[in-house]
Design a protein that fits this description.
Strand content: 5-15%
CATH superfamily: Flavin prenyltransferase-like
Structural class: alpha/beta
Distance between the termini: 54 Å
Number of domains: 1
Shape: globular
Bound molecules: flavin mononucleotide
Number of strands: 6
CATH architecture: 3-Layer(aba) Sandwich
């Protein structure tokens, strides 16, 4: 991971996790926004997340179903260099091409969900400001709320909470049962921000991009990052 460490050393980083809930585009929009603002991003995608991305965005069609059904990542090789394996670089390059990440193409690393040896699995990782799970499935929500830490997404979220850093959970399911609600309350009580990707209509969105930007902007607000990505409510008093 030498290449990525050098770049990250310049500034702060965030962890973005895409899980197997609907709305993968929200996660990629946030990725693009953060790296365009010169933050380094540690990107983790759960195996069910890959399935949803394939289905919703037509990406990663080259990834074997054996992988998404529980097999090992391609040519992982030396575990220390896992993020630089050809498998991981293929994933990264497809994201760069699809979302035209020219400016910040080097400022993120794709990390396999099984890579529990990653630096971000430890509270000693420097420069990590926070983590956003977007979209967050009810499965990941439950496992994070209960401290399961079975994969890198769950472990990194656990670390963020214990280090009292910002964890933003963007849960996607409807309707919600009492288990979902209890897990959200539990995470809220532990300090997480529960930020469902629910669109607003007071800002009169015209396109799907407007709706996505609204959520991206609300996440930046929650991270205390200045932005004018979405149209804010001006108040009747401004008329
Ligand atoms: C196309 C598709 C869409 C899905 N959408 C959701 C969803 O919106 N919310 C949810 O909680 N689960 C959803 N699921 C089910 C999760 O992917 C499944 O529970 C999975 O085990 C979650 O694993 P993960 O949390 O490790 O990503 C969806 C599955 C598929 C195939």
């Amino acid at each position: 991971m030498k290449e990525n460490l050098d770049i990250e050393a310049d500034g702060y980083s965030y962890i973005i996790a895409l899980t197997g809930a609907s709305g993968a585009i929200y996660g990629f929009s946030l990725l693009k926004t953060l790296i365009n603002r010169s933050f380094f991003v540690h990107l983790i995608i759960s195996k069910p997340g890959f399935k949803v991305i394939k289905d919703e965005l037509g990406m990663f069609t080259g990834i074997s179903d054996i992988y998404t059904n529980g097999g090992e990542a391609g040519t992982g090789g030396n575990r220390e260099d896992y993020s630089l394996s050809s498998f991981n670089l293929d994933i990264k390059n497809e994201i760069i091409n699809r979302f035209e990440l020219q400016e910040g193409c080097c400022r993120f690393a794709f990390l396999d969900e099984n890579f529990l040896e990653a630096r971000i699995a430890s509270g000693s990782a420097k420069n990590v400001k926070g983590m956003i799970v977007i979209p967050c499935s009810m499965g990941s929500l439950s496992r994070i709320a209960n401290g399961i830490s079975g994969n890198l997404i769950e472990r990194a979220a656990d670390v963020i909470l214990k280090e009292r850093k910002k964890l933003i959970i963007c849960p996607r399911e409807t309707p919600l049962n009492d288990i979902h609600l209890k897990n959200m309350l539990s995470l809220y009580s532990s300090g997480a921000v529960i930020l469902p990707p629910v669109p607003a209509f007071y800002n009169k969105p015209q396109t799907v991009s407007d709706i996505i930007d609204f959520i991206t902007g609300k996440i930046l607000d929650a991270l205390d990052i200045e932005n004018d990505i979405y149209v804010r409510w001006k108040g009747y008093d401004s008329k």
